[in-house]
Design goal:
Blueprint lengths: L14 E12 L14 E6 L2 H10 L4 E2 L12 E6 L8 E5 L4 E4 L12 E14 L5 E14 L28
Parallel strand pairs: 4-8, 5-8
Antiparallel strand pairs: 1-2, 1-7, 2-4, 3-4, 5-6, 7-8
Length: about 180
């Protein structure tokens, strides 16, 4: 039996966007209405129509925003980006006013509750093809620099050294 040969153009170049907008973050991989437990992801907003047309033509899975109840719709498209630490570990940097911190598999979930000001992103392509001929390109996070809004007290307490964990044991004195 002859094997089916396809002439699918493979996408090799990553998508790089400065001042990108990301939405529907689930860096923790929490189970949700649209998410299986452990599946870390977010959506990248693509507002540039020309870029969106080129990505769609190349096989990336972009979705146009759906209209809201009032009939309005945000401009542009969005695409899901997978955050995986299995094969190629993504480089994720958390940027604040005075520092940058590398986020790993255990700390990346901090971005789910962060007030993101801006981010620069690189998404690598994964070309896939099914035996029935369907094919496309899935996005995986490669690099992400995220600048966040610090809380109002961060500057005030910056000079005090931090402990190595978020939880600190406190001795409680019982006056009874």
């Amino acid at each position: 039996m002859a094997q089916k040969v396809t002439n699918i153009k493979r996408v090799e170049a990553p998508i790089r966007i400065e001042n990108a907008k990301i939405i529907w973050t689930n860096f923790a991989g929490a189970k949700g209405r649209y998410n299986q437990p452990g599946f870390r992801n977010f959506h990248l907003v693509i507002e540039d129509e020309e870029l969106a047309d080129n990505l769609i033509r190349d096989g990336w899975n972009l979705k146009r925003f759906k209209p809201r109840e009032d009939g309005s719709a945000p401009d542009g498209y969005h695409m899901q980006v997978v955050v995986s630490f299995e094969n190629r570990v993504p480089k994720v940097m958390l940027i604040t006013k005075h520092s940058q911190t590398f986020l790993n598999e255990d700390t990346i979930e901090l971005l789910d509750s962060a007030d993101i000001i801006s981010c620069d992103i690189e998404v690598r392509p994964f070309n896939w093809e099914q035996s029935d001929g369907r094919h496309g390109v899935k996005g995986y996070l490669q690099t992400l620099y995220v600048t966040i809004q610090e809380d109002p007290f961060a500057e005030k307490y910056r000079h005090i050294p931090m402990t190595s964990t978020r939880e600190v044991e406190v001795d409680v004195v019982d006056d009874n």
